Amino acid sequence: MRPRWPRRVFAQVLLVQLLIITGVAGLAAGLFLAPLAAQLDDQAEHRALAIAQATAAQPGIAHSLLAGPPSPDGPVQADAERIRLATGASYVVVVDTRGIRYSHTVPGRIGERVSTDPGRALGGQEWTGIGRGTLGRSARGKVPLRDGEGAIVGAVSVGIAYDNVHALLLRAVPGILMYAGAALGVGALAALVVSRRLRKRTHGIELTEISALLGEREAMLHGIREGVVALDRHGRVRLLNDAAARLLGIGRDAIGHPLDRVLPPGRTTDVLAGRVTGTDLLTVRDGRVLVVNRRDTAAGGTVATLRDRTELEQLRRELDGTRGLTDALRAQDHEHANRLHTIVGLLELGLYEEAADFVAEVTGAHRATAEQVTERVRDPLVSALLVGKSAVAAERGVALRVSPATRLPDRVVDPRDLVTVLGNLVDNALDATAGAAAAAPAAAEGAEGAEGDVPHDAPFVEVELRAVGETLVVRVADNGPGVPSAARELVFTDGWSTKEAAPHRRRGLGLSLVRRLAERYGGSVRAGERDGGGAVFTVELPEALRLPAHSAHPAHSARSKG
């Protein structure tokens, strides 16, 4: 049955550590024992050689060898046994030049020829090695035996039993294993400490659970519609889900690179990098309104979430338009009620001619205002916006005027963008002049879009729409407090506003959206000072107008003229 791998992280790490330490200890023991055995064999061979050399140096052995035939009771056997017993060798064998033994551990084998070839020793060479003879495996040393004149008369062979060498090796094994066991114990203790630390760092989550959590996290991060961006302590992108890549307009290859390198300079980069602090920070990226929140991590990095509020802002603008229309209708209802009361009073007093003149005057004034706007602004959406805003302005005590230079043909590519630009600029101008209107309420009465009949110091907003080729120039001026020179660039920053935010929405988006729309058309927007005091905003929208029919089809126009 196959053993089961433990499920707990602690047990897995400990088991792996023990296996590694056991393997390393076994390998180290093997690497140590192998040279030790060779060293012991070499020492035994040199010892056998030294005993053989000492035996051959005895002067009486060569003389006794030449004195008579081999005999178990002869002097050669006696001297060899004395040396063997004194040195602890397994055998000391002396042979003549024919290889006949003169000494042996077993006396009965004296007079027989040796089992191994003594040729190298009889040839004058010393030899060592491990071999097997009649006494078993042994470490051997062989030297030539010379007489007093140096002539070779025989050879001396000494052997040390290999079992003795092996015993030395076995006696060394327990010590080696003891040290290996100590190393194993230290390693097991270290593995225990590491395992507990790892368990603490992983909050007791098992390896299988970590893998499952990682898969669930990836699915969750890339499945939600909110963008998630994680930065390390050095500002490098560590995590980027699909929604964040789509909202920021960057690819997944941004991971690992600094944020300032993958995003252009601007408010979005500053908010994500933490250079702008706060909650629910607003920023605009590629025409999308994003709400960003950041949170620091224990490792020194940050995690930022991004919510797309583009559709919500579009709905808010539509709601603002509806609210503006409601305000205009309410203002007109208020004025119509007053005028109806005046007509009823004139009729009750029997002033019929005065009542008829009053009706004609009021009707003519409204008709003149509407006709004045529609004559100069041919686009129905834009003209309707101006008529509605004029009623709102009149209720707030501000005169909304259309500049005499206004000429807007019915060639606007996308009137909704122009309505957004013009509506935001007019609303800001009305807010700026509302304080002045409160100080001089009488100055704005009866000034609903009229020109020239407003007192010089009365609060007003003037709109100018001009077509310069394919470029549409929008100019909105007012005689309010104006914009300080130091803030003429800040007013176009996302979330920047001098007014307190309303409970139902955030401020600081209108002028930012105006700039984004202008940049989308390849144009620009700038804030300046109006002559005589106040502010003027100028927007240039290249290619916002379609070409005239005769310009778009010159060949057709030439044929029709002919």
From TrEMBL:
Pfam families according to UniProt: HATPase_c, PAS, sCache_3_2
Q: Where in the cell is it found?
A: Cell membrane
The membrane-topology field of this record reads: Multi-pass membrane protein
Q: Which organism is it from?
A: Streptomyces telluris
Catalyzed reaction equations: ATP + protein L-histidine = ADP + protein N-phospho-L-histidine
Q: Which SMART domains match?
A: HATPase_c, PAS
- UniProt keyword annotation of Transmembrane helix present: yes
Q: Which PROSITE patterns match?
A: HIS_KIN, PAS
Q: Name one GO cellular component term.
A: plasma membrane
- The segment(s) forming the Histidine kinase domain are 310-545
Top EC class, one word: transferase
The UniProt entry, under CDD domains, shows: PAS
- Report the residue ranges that make up the PAS domain in this protein: 220-255
| The protein's name in its UniProt record | histidine kinase
Single Gene Ontology MF annotation: phosphorelay sensor kinase activity
SUPFAM superfamilies attached to this UniProt entry? ATPase domain of HSP90 chaperone/DNA topoisomerase II/histidine kinase, PYP-like sensor domain (PAS domain), Sensory domain-like, Sporulation response regulatory protein Spo0B
